[in-house]
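Technical appendix A lists one of the benchmark inputs used to test multi-chain prediction within the project. The record comprises two sequence entries:
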Amino acid sequence: MTMNERKEQVDAGRRKVLGAAVGVASVTAAPGVVLHTLAVAEPRSKPVTDSVRWGMLIDSSKCAEGCDACVTACNKENGLDLQARPEGEDAAKWDRQVAKWIRMVKVQDNLTGYVSRLPMMCQHCELPPCVDVCPTGASFKRADGIVLVDRHICIGCRYCMMACPYKARSFIHEVVKVKLTRAPRGKGCVESCNLCVHRRDNGEASTACADACAAEGQGAILFGDLKDPDSPLMKALAALPSREIRGDLDLNTGVRYTGV
Amino acid sequence: MANALIRSSLLAIGLSGAALPFPGVSADFAPGNHVIAGSRAADLEHCVRETSFMRRNHMELIEHQRHVTVHEGVRATEYGLSGCVACHVSYDREGQPVPIYSEGQFCETCHEFAAVELTCFDCHATVPAHTDAEARDEVAPQSGGQAEADVAPVSAVPAAGMEVARAPHELRKEVGD
């Protein structure tokens, strides 16, 4: 046996021992690694609780005429701009039917002529009429106050669309070819603003519309936790006179307006 | 007597016919056939559970996961549909992901063979979420990102360095002879 061969033998033996050691180490280390990953990714791995309630304050007086940054950002974030008008479809009809999560509603005071601009989306009611009427349980309120549609269960009856006082819900009338992973969408289901629920689950701070509005310099949309008295949202709500739209319905909406 | 003979020979023919497809079935879906090189799946011995379990029960995992995700906001688990797509999708020569439910692709191949129609991809994305696509400006909708008709089956255009997803008839030819 030459020196070289003997050396190779020794090396092979070392490798086996080292391999076994690595194996043992990885087995013992694995639970720790998993725990660490879970701790880091906690927003995505823990069920949502009612320790928070997401909501918004929209300052109508800051909402600039001619600006639609929030609508555009919402469309992009949630893939609404990927809906394609079928060939031969009437443009006006399509505009009436295409899903929109934010509508820009203008309200004019008949006496003074003052026009308020209200970005109008799902108001995330505490007592949502859409949930009351849903025959399948598809329309539901999450523990953190977000009202959304489980489209796996939705049968597309559109009862919720009729029940909603805010005209917040849309029905998907056409096949959707291009979808985003974060925002699934298909023909035959109802949907509406879900306060960027994928962002909530990822532990991000804000919604697409609020970010876009701030980036435009208006800062008319403030998103936050209605259960945290120290959040900027609650401080603003405590400082400003705000109102619910259709407050007479006693729905305790999560979206409030000021400067109307 | 003659009847008995005919009956038994018919039975024999029937049995041999029935026995034949089974090796074919297992060969068609041999593990790893649709796992692309360089993907997360390529480095793993099996899927999130062992292969035999996944073949029969993947839909149960996905269905449970969808409820947990939609209602409880739990997304950091391994049984999500986006995980299937991310791991099993294949790429064309330009490096563009090929929709996973288009002809010859991972989901379609098996469901076509088993005559099971799935509706997951009526709503869900058929290509993985990569940062560009989700930050948008999308896997170019016009240039065929997910418009399935525009994309040639991968088996027709083998990409360099990419394992090619094979259609079942090709595999059957290989194995059957």
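The CA atoms of residues 68 and 74 of chain B lie 6 Å apart. Strands of chain B lie at 90-91, 97-98. Comparable benchmark entries are summarised in Table A2.
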